[in-house]
Amino acid sequence: VPELVVLAAFGWSTVLLAAGGLILLRAQDTLHRLVALDVLASILIIVLTTLSYVDGVSYYVDAALALALLSFAATLVAARYIVRRRRAL
Amino acid sequence: MLEALVSGVAVLLLLAGCTLATIAVYGLILKPDLFEQLHVAALLTGPGVLLVLLASVGTRSPEIITSAVLVIAFVLVTSSISTHVIAQAGVLRYGPSQGASVGLSGAGSGPAIAGPVDDHESSLHVTGSAMRVVIAHDGSPAANLASDLAAAIEWPAGTAIRLIGVADHAPLALDATPPLAPDRDLPRQEQANATDLERAAIVLRRPGRQVETAILSGDPGDVIVDETVAFGADLLITGSRRRGLVQSLLGWSAAGDIVDRAPCPVLVARATVLRDVLLTTDGSAHSEAATEIVARWPIFDLARIHVVTVSPDAPSVGRGRSDASESWDAPERAVDATAGRLMDAGRDITSAVLYGRPGARIIEHAHQRSVDLIVIGSRGRTGLGRTLLGSVAGEVLASARCSVLIVNPPLRRPSGDPSPYPTGQ
After folding, report:
1. What is the pTM of this model?
2. Which of residues 328-387 of B touch A (CB under 8 A)?
3. What's the ipTM?
4. CA of B65, closest CA in chain A: separation in Å?
5. Chain A closest-CA separation from residue B138 CA (Å)
6. Each residue of B69-102: pLDDT tens digit?
């Protein structure tokens, strides 16, 4: 894979990460924030994956796996909390 | 040759992944609606991530490819579940029909429709003419009491009444295929429920009154509250099932939960008349709202109103020590102000000041005078504080033998909240 393409993908996904942060800040309520966080985690997975392509090492993809796991659990718990927000107390 | 092909494919995959991600982020910035956001976000969380991970073949490094395949397997399962769970939370929160009317719920329609919901004032003056009433009905004798009471009330002309039954299976956020909002195609179990509802609706139907029924499924508390919001109801009427031992051990019944969360006043029916009404006041904003309702709602036109306030200031220690100071006549003034407001509204009233523990005194007084209804303002929605300290309204609701009308404070929403609740139609 041409180095340039991988670097460009890495750079672009970093830009998207910033845009994702913007979405998170603009979110009006918890559910929108939850979507934004979900998206942010996905972008981060892309960033880590492209980073591992750049460096040619697999650790970053492992980190991405851990991130995917955590963000999935977080989304489930947060959504469940929103559904039963009153009873959660 | 092969190498060039593989790396060419990898480049294409990488670019496609990045393009999808860009589209998704752009869409997220563009679309304020939750369901539309989910729609575009799925481009990124699913295919976008997968394409970028698939591009790992181009690295020809077994370690990277193995790790990437693991992530792919994981993302394939989780991204759809995440989206599903968020959508489910959205449906329960914003009401079911928003998803169906995505085209209508653009940015412009939000605040206009949300108006009557979060503005308590408007729900008060709208009710000068017609009212919008939701009756939660589960087919039990207690729920029949609710619909019988509603049938006995002289509603103003044009009143819309929505009878809702809830099929009793709670959705689990972790369940991959939960029943979402209205399932109109669940035949067997809800058939009995539907006939109960229809029977109740027949009693309620009058000329110039719009009565509709609906069977919804989901957690009763959530469904009823969301339906009340979606209908833009001025009043929610519910029966009060006496809780059995198991239920009280497990926690609140649906009624208590609904009372805490409903966006409008909640009438818990335990009798089928509203002739003698006990209005409790303490001069605070929430009892003010209760007074306004008794003064303005036409359903209280023929009622005899008895206004009481309870002062805890005459304690068991110093009953005789009450030197006529300001603190002593504060309750008197609260009663006078309320009574004055009601008299201006042409209500038939009497009043009294009671001393002692508010909850217990109100209930005792209500039983002595055998009133049909206690109207009480609720501080409401204080979450942990309520759980720990309890509240007068909660106490009255739990131990009164007559009907109780709990007037909740207006629901506070962030002003920018676009949540476009569908109107009842």
Report:
1. 0.50
2. 383-384, 387
3. 0.91
4. 8
5. 21
6. 989 999 999 989 999 888 888 877 665 544 443 3
